[in-house]
């Protein structure tokens, strides 16, 4: 059937081509004919959810010791999946593909930002991970230890993660864009013994150093870190780097001494695989804990069925950095467990030119692309001529993740990038481990802007504040109503916060406790789910989660700042943007009156947390709107930040405050 009318030839959509109500796309007969997923999956999961996941796990993974129990939910919300089984996560991602005769298949096609390319087969990747596993063991790392990984998007990042997994230790990957301070707090929270980093990586046409941030993080107070392994990526041999003798080791020197033989031992299904820090509603990031057997089952199943993976012919590309959950689940564990061939790119989309991504797709014949709405919107802005000057005909499936995708961006993505290919909009979180709500390509009819239906084996509900299901056409809070294999097993070192954050909102409802996701959602007339964004004080900037409290505490740590309030304001490109309102201490009012003062505060946030947290705007104000109980009314600040008339101010302790803020901003304009 014809799928849509063609869009006009300008960059953004014009009024005539705006998404139409009720617009939907059926899978083509051709796609359906060779699709991995089928409608049977829904039926099987509905018939027996636990048996469904057990079947997936047995067929997708190699268990050294088969499990006999699927789920232990005797102490909710602390779940155990496949708990009496044993497996090795790295063996599942590597050795078994080699043993099955696929050692020559390319696992990673890596391209650096300057254009250097490495093609690494499954046999080569396995050998490298074995060497790295031997190296970690020789440094005294074993099961129960944590290893911090702070690397650019280079193959060694994946080798390091898999080597940690192979020896049963636990990794904590920290995004390379985070500051020394953020790195230190994560290292301390997890009590990491080893840090794996690089001299630097390539970003925006130049070298972005990493090792100095590690040095800064480890300076001062004693740390748990014993050794720092440094991958050489950025500079040639003669570059002088700060070096701490006895602590710092070159990765390439050490790896060269290691044997490429290493027998993968099996570990319990619930052995901790990784901790990944994510922003919550308080200033302190949460260390989300994931374990092995359930997580790998969930990521392998969803990667295969949601991305319709044909490992012998597809070239898959997920553009996420390994510092985020999407990089963990859909660059490392899901794809490698499934024996996929994938592209990894080190750099930014606009270096050295705005068509870099499309050039990569053309050059490496990428067939499946998984990226974020913020990227799509920024490409829309620069115009369709750029992607249209490349051959993108290898693409056959597109994915979206990280934030709600507006129908205009969905349609543009489908037409201009995909030439009419299906799109899967995948809703999930760091906490869920893997995709929870998404169409299955070849099976589900899709609607621009809707994430649609839970995947087979996952049960969700849209609830009122009191835990009652909303009707069709109504909005409410998204909850997951049954435990699932990839679910977080806790917050590192803080079981009470785990229970409080996710399981207390719907603790007392029937069949509870239910998992509260922190997102608003709407069910349409067909029962399909549309995500509406966060309902808590978590912002979503370019698909990255940032907490208002964390940025506020960075601001008040600056000597000028007496008080700060941060809101997420709508932004055309990044979804939301950080906007801060700051009260300056009177003794610093002169310094703060200088031109560029607000920019200094913006840079201060960027250097404390990382460039992604840099506020779009900092407004210097004399008061903040508060309720009589002293709570900052962020809703009113959001009105100001989004340039709207300020809403209801009747609950303010001092009704004149908003007028004063308005006047102050008008002065500046
Ligand atoms: C995978 C990831 C999770 C939050 C989540 C939600 C938002 C993610 C989405 C989406 C609408 C989608 N989110 N995917 N909102 N549609 N397809 O992004 O994890 O970084 O933990 O963020 O992102 O608000 O709660 P994470």
From TrEMBL:
Chain ranges of the AMP-binding enzyme C-terminal domain: 550-631
EC numbers on record: 6.2.1.1
Residue list for modification N6-acetyllysine: 631
Occurrences of domain Acetyl-coenzyme A synthetase N-terminal (ranges): 40-93
Homology family: Belongs to the ATP-dependent AMP-binding enzyme family.
Record's function text: Catalyzes the conversion of acetate into acetyl-CoA (AcCoA), an essential intermediate at the junction of anabolic and catabolic pathways. AcsA undergoes a two-step reaction. In the first half reaction, AcsA combines acetate with ATP to form acetyl-adenylate (AcAMP) intermediate. In the second half reaction, it can then transfer the acetyl group from AcAMP to the sulfhydryl group of CoA, forming the product AcCoA.
Protein name as it appears in the record: Acetyl-coenzyme A synthetase
Species of origin: Naasia lichenicola
